[in-house]
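Incident log, structure service

09:12 report received: a user says their structure output differs between two submissions of the same chain.
09:20 pulled the input from the user's history:
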Amino acid sequence: MEMNFDDDFSDDDLNDDPINAEQMFEKSLDHTPELVNLRRLLRMALKLIDRKFPQESDCRNELYRRRCIKEEPCCKKCGSRNFKRQPGSLSGKCLSCKTVQSLTIGTPFYKLKEPRAFLSMMILLEEGFAFNSTQFANERGIAESSSWAMRLKINMAIADRMEYQDNIAEVSSAEFESVITRRSRVTPANAHPTAEEEAMREACSSKDAEEAAENFDTNETGPKSEATANSQANAPTGEADTNTNLQLLDNSQTLEGLQRKIYDTLSDTPQSCENLIDLLDVSSQELFSALTMLELEGLILRLAGGRYIRDGSDEKKHPEQQQQPQKKLAPIQKRRTHLPSLSRQEGLVVARSNDFTELTEEAIDYIRTVFQGVSRKYLQLYLADFWRVKAHRAGKIPFSIFDVCCQALDTSTTALKAFVSPLLVKIISTPAPAS
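09:34 re-ran on a clean worker, output below:
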């Protein structure tokens, strides 16, 4: 049966019952045109939300209430959790040190100018709606850029959550070339959006060539001899550590300018992009370019939440990585270290399982249908949104989107500008709903 979407609807369609968005959304997924044009569904849902939260102060109160479900805000000066807050405000006064501060620090709605729009978007996403930023901006009456930024910040938090899910595979971003139709700030000048993929591949190919050269003995034309390998393996621990450090120093000694400053600033303590911009007094675009090159050179490591450390040891041994699972919402599953059915081709790990091949095609169809096209820079964030929708339809979404956003490591505007999808994007297989 075909659904009839009229522009006009009566108030009889909008009762005081909870939003039954899941049922409406599942029906809309059966018809591609309705998935693209959710104008009537969005209007109905937004009007229901406005009835429940008629004033801007009501929206702020609801945001604060949800903010405090898992954890009360903490004073950045004394660590106290006792605040005096006026109703309808997202700021409060610490009762211990009398400091006035925002109670939304570290959340996607920090310094929020559109509380109604953000709350509405959160509710729609939690209910399983699929829409793009233009559709939401038109129906909510806000700037499209504001709608886009809100949506991608939420997607950043979801993408961070993907790191700890089971049944995850890494797929070459080149598989999504057909939907890479939008340029970004990292797309080469006067080039097609897909040129960004080619530029990153070339940079990685140069990096792979350098690593391959290190596997050859400096005194031979072929690989290191067995005797040489055995002598290095049997070398005293102190000597081996010294050689490793020297090799790292040799790589870093080629750095100049901003890359050198960043490398010297970073240590074993994670630094956010926002902190680096303040410390180095550079623009976000300059910082992002330098961080990308350092990461490709293998000198720094990007942690979840857009933070960076020196890549001097195995990522899994870093204390920050060990503590992250405890910071996440339960249930959290350990990230897989062995991806299913993988093969290495052209320096990239590509999923070969039929399940993931079909899932990739399904993700491409979803992106094309809902967003028409995306930039390669933010591809991973749109794949996170695809996972949200698919998990919701299967009834197996393992988290509250609002709670995940509140516990995300870094969803600031600076982190969003600095974000770039890796050559290997993550995709998760979610079981189909039971029939």
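09:41 both user submissions now match this output. Likely a transient worker issue. Closing.
09:42 reviewer note: DSSP finds 18 helices and twelve strands in the chain. The CA atoms of residues 82 and 243 lie 52 Å apart.
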